[in-house]
Amino acid sequence: MEESVLVNKAENYLNEIANDAIILEDIEEFDNFKSLYYKLVDRLDYLQSLKDDMDAQGYTTPFTALSRYGTKSASDVALEEVGENSRHNQIFRMKANSKKNILDRVKSAIDSHKIAIGNLEQFGYVKCNSCYKKYSISDYRQRQAKCSCGSQGFTFKVNKEATHRLDIIPFLPLSGNYMVLMGELNKYDRESFKQVLNILKQERKGVVKTISLVIRFRDKNNRLIRKNITLDSEFVNNYEEEVRRRYGRNVRIEALRFHRTKPAIIDDKHARTALALAYVKYAESIIAVIKDDILKRRLTDFKRLNRYYEILAKYENQTPDFIDKYDLNAIESWRESKIKEEFMKLNYADRFGNIKRSLSRDLKIRDSIYKNTFQNIASALIMWDIFRYYLTTSNNSRKIITGPFPYIRVELDREQRKVFQNNYIKVIDTLNNFTDIKIISLDDKDLLLYEKFKFEKQSRSSNIKFNHVALGAAIIHLNSDVELEEISNAFNINESKIRKELKNIDQIRNPKSDKSKKFLDLIKK
Hints:
mainly alpha; three-stranded antiparallel beta sheet; 6 strands; 58% helix
């Protein structure tokens, strides 16, 4: 396929996705759920095929091909050909940029679809009406809607215990338009976006990936040679012996550098960006619903504050005809004078233009609510979702199943767990009081994750079949002061199931029989 044809094909397909809105209304109805899931999976397959075609045609490194084939250096060009060569270079660079940008959009769209599909797979499952066997939606699709018993009758069930947040799906950059969505963020959203990205980019302690050395040695002809070499991480503890083995005993190491890799919690750039945008935009939709109710309770005069911002918005982009549109200082001065005039008419400011004290106090309160509460909603939500995901899934399932967080680390080390030390108490109280979202305010979530990962190692060879959602709830109950009822409500799971896992934890950690004690000793070794 010609390069320009492939670029146009990808752009047209992404534009089709952009114009097809995601509707979550009545998503608990199986036909609606299945229709959305199948559509997203079909899209993902097509996007993957586009990416494969682009990789095959060198879209990953378009400028390499440019430097190799597309341009000539100035010394190779005759004087009369300089203009033509410059035009050629510009055309080649435009094509290379076009390849790079479209591949970037396709990668973003792929990761966004993976996030959406992962949330849907967690949201619900089907149950055979004949033999009552359960299937995930992906298995149901793969089996072409037919049970192993031969039945084609199924009932759709919403899995309230699993970690999912379907409300973020409409806000994902499914068409790869993450740059457009980032440009739409207001100042509070931009700060919120940075916070979420920093959470997802939290890196683990560095692990040596390669070692770069500059060595000096004499060859068979006794010539002194200086050489740059690279060794893999397997030689981190014996690089000197390896260099001597390859280049002789008299080799000298002149320079040495260890290159470390620091994987993040979500170890993919496009997945991090897509998640951050989706959670920030979703938080924005929550704020739009709850902000008036919250502000009315805290402000002296809610209507006055609204009118204040209406006046600012009114003149924000106004430019009078009698002022040159390029005279920015004059335009700004005119806007300020008109705003001051309206404020004085409404008694919002004194004759010198100073804002009245009560209004100034309301402005500070509003700004504080936005900075300390609204701006942190996206961070609080995604931290809770990731925390809950780790608590309620097994190590093996995190390896095998993509889930709602593609490219997430199977386990977090101490450095990565530090990000969970922030509690966002005000935000959690606001969400619990003004929305249907249920989040538990927990101190030391990083230590709770440590306890979960430690228990996974302790129970690795156990034959006990755990209910992992109840197990996560049980670990919270054992290591905090939160009541069992509150944990049960937040995790949508029956208290009796949590109590059963409390017994299983006790059986693993405090074995009663000699056989169990010997088994535990073997695990520890």
